[in-house]
Design a protein that fits this description.
Elements (H helix, E strand, L loop, with lengths): L3 E5 L5 H8 L3 E6 L3 H18 L3 H9 L4 H6 L3 H5 L1 E2 L8 H12 L6 E4 L8 H6 L12 H12 L3 E6 L10 H12 L2 E9 L10 E9 L21 H4 L10 E2 L11 H5 L12 E2 L5 H17 L62 H7 L17 H10 L3 H17 L1
Parallel strand pairs: 1-2, 1-4, 2-3, 4-5
Antiparallel strand pairs: 5-7, 6-7, 8-9
Helix pairs in contact: 1-15, 2-3
């Protein structure tokens, strides 16, 4: 028996991808961003074509032999129609419900997954906001999430968000969530998870709230007890990729430098196809590249991070000298995990310097995607077809690591089967 789900605030589909890999069937994805919806459509096309022995069509798209429109024409309309590009809220909910109804085909919803945008709860978002995010309408999108629980009455739900949710407004939002979810008939259990405990090679803490119908006897897993042994290093994500310098690389067809690594193979990140896409690096100013070399050299020789105030005066252009000392940071190849990949990577790459000083650049789109545990055949779209580095970085930084999501999905699957 297979279980289905609706993904709200779906983003680029990292959470969804993990659940699909665990055997769940997506009913619909709801997402406001146009670029992310194109990514979701392309991934939906991938899953359909792979399942129906038409995978060669998807390969042709990755190679650039056919365009996005041609790819989408190879997929039934109802598959693409399940990607709903609308903001969740009173103005659009009825339209969204009608679209979901078409995809459901009289079935019941087993699971709702997703988490509202995190800026309203994140510590960084609050520190950069003059109002500390007070009055931001995104603060209360969980109320909309609760309305969807009431509408579809899933057996369980998975609500993902940032660690700052626990402290935002002194815990007020979290208290309100518990009240409203309870009112809708659900008990909840909050988990604080480390992505690196799920063999994601990245230091990423997230809140996962599991909810279940109060009238059902469901054995709720303790996700915090899951710690999967990891014997890999960040270099295992990087070693097979071609050497490129700042501003180099290509959006489409590149050859891998070497055979796959054990990590990439065992976790299906590089899964048998000899096609590398989106290994493209942003260009950098000469001054930044000089700083990058200093940062890499300091890590290589002393295993120390660069403190911004230690740079020569001629290289210090930021006015702020009292905080963000580590604004230039190397993705160290010899550590078991990198720093957290966040959406700010779309603006600059200073916090994500490649560890090879010969390449002297920040990490590429594909390298960022691998740190988030996305497989190499996952293609990140923009509004228009073609190279969309900024849109891809933003989607990757906001995503849930699929490898972590897959482990969570297997635990949910066991709980549903046992009830």
């Amino acid at each position: 028996m297979s279980y289905n789900f609706i993904d709200l605030f779906a983003g680029a589909g990292g959470l969804s991808e993990g659940f699909i890999q665990a055997g769940f069937e997506p009913i619909a994805h709801v997402e406001i961003e146009n670029s992310a919806c194109n990514t979701l459509r392309t991934r939906a096309a991938y899953h359909y074509l792979k399942t129906n022995n038409k995978y060669k069509i998807y390969i042709s798209y990755l190679k650039g032999e056919i365009n996005r429109e041609q790819l989408y024409l190879s997929v039934p309309n109802d598959i693409l129609g399940s990607i709903i590009n609308l903001p969740i809220g009173v103005e659009n909910n009825e339209t969204i419900h009608q679209r979901i109804k078409k995809s459901l085909r009289k079935r019941k919803v087993d699971l709702i997954i997703g988490g509202p945008p995190c800026q309203a709860y994140s510590l960084v978002g609050r520190s950069r906001s003059k109002t500390k995010m007070e009055g931001d309408p995104r603060n209360y999108l969980f109320l909309q999430y609760a309305e969807y629980l009431e509408k579809y009455k899933p057996k369980m739900f998975v609500f993902e968000n940032v660690l700052g949710l626990k402290s935002a407004k002194g815990g007020h939002y979290l208290e309100e969530m518990e009240k409203i979810f309870n009112k809708k008939g659900y008990q909840i259990k909050l988990h604080t998870l480390e992505a690196r405990n799920f063999r994601v090679l990245q230091n990423r803490k997230r809140i996962i709230i599991l909810g279940w119908q109060k009238n059902k006897k469901i054995s709720i897993p303790n996700l915090e007890e899951i710690v999967i042994e990891n014997n890999y290093l960040v270099k295992d994500l990087l070693d097979d990729l071609p050497v490129i310098k700042a501003g180099e690389g290509t959006d489409r067809f590149l050859k891998y430098k070497t055979e796959t690594t054990e990590y990439l193979k065992s976790h299906a990140l590089r899964n048998g196809i000899d096609i590398l896409t989106q290994h493209i690096a942003r260009p950098h100013r000469e001054q930044d590249k000089e700083i990058y070399k200093i940062a890499v050299r300091k890590w290589e020789k002393k295993k120390e991070r660069l403190n911004y105030n230690d740079l020569p005066e001629r290289l210090k252009t930021h006015q702020n000298r009292t905080s963000f000392f580590d604004r230039f940071k190397v993705v160290a190849a010899d550590l078991p995990y990198s720093q957290t990949v966040v959406a700010h990577i779309a603006k600059d790459g200073h916090y994500y310097i490649h560890p090879d000083s010969k390449q002297n650049r920040s990490i590429s789109v594909r390298e960022a995607a691998r740190l988030q545990s996305f497989p190499d055949d996952y293609y990140f779209e923009g509004e228009k077809e073609g190279a969309n580095r900024t849109a891809a970085f933003k989607q990757i930084g906001n995503a849930v690591p699929p490898l972590m999501a897959k482990s969570i999905a297997f635990e949910i699957l066991k709980a549903l089967k046992e009830q």
